[in-house]
Amino acid sequence: MATKKPTSYNFPHPMDNDCLVGHNDVLNNFMSAWNMRDSHPIHPVWMLTGPRGIGKATMAYKIAKMVYGNIGDFFIIDMDRNIEKDGKIKTDGKVISVYTVRAMIEKMQMSSMSGDWRVILIDSVDELNTAASNALLKLLEEPPAKTLFLLVVHQLSNVLPTVRSRARVEKMHPLTISQLRELCAKFMPDEEVSTETLKLANGSFGSIANLKKSGGDAVYEELIETLQNERTNSADMMNIAKKIAAQPELYSILLDAIAYFGLADLYSNTIKSISDINKLYLEPEIGIFKIITEIKKCL
Fold it and tell me: For 96, phi and psi rounded to 5 degrees?
């Protein structure tokens, strides 16, 4: 089975995405609180939590667009706006710096205070370094009037308890297969997305997008086909191992293959083997080949 050539897709940034599928409960919770804000003050800090790729940032931007008054009343902290101490964009960072948070606070203090609501959107809190988290905490301890904080969080345990305690936490859940199909029809209308790919995504449309952009869905299907084929030989398994090794972000499909075949006993050892690949092997495909061979033996 030949690997498909990755196709170019147009997946909009959450800021530009008007298609929010699912999560009506969370949206209704916010709208109810927002519509009653004159009689019951709305909580100033809303934390949207859940797995990556399920629509948390899309939800945050949707809410922000409904709330903030003027363009100057919307402040965003994310990796695209991450800056160094000198104010220059940080292009190679893995965490959001304290300078980014401080710059946002300074801009907010200089904003026009027109009387309209202001919004601070952070995508994501998981990526704030310790100093940045502490700077945010100081702001949350005494939140400015008529200011709404929208905090995107992928893993709640990554958030400082003191930050979490000052927020209203809204848990967003993985999307259903039918909701994933709806999004696929919207953003990939000419693409046939298999049920296996939908299951592989674990309720995350972001995962489907990444799989499609990288061709990872085709690699996964080839892996399953290779394992199922009774005539598969070592050369076939090495061939698929090389394709997985070429994209380290695809290593997890080995675990998905184990789940597909119901081989729970292999799970913990495979996790360890994956973590050891780059430590033990100059050529990662050797380690991946060994994992594939172990799976094959159990079928």
Answer: -85, 130
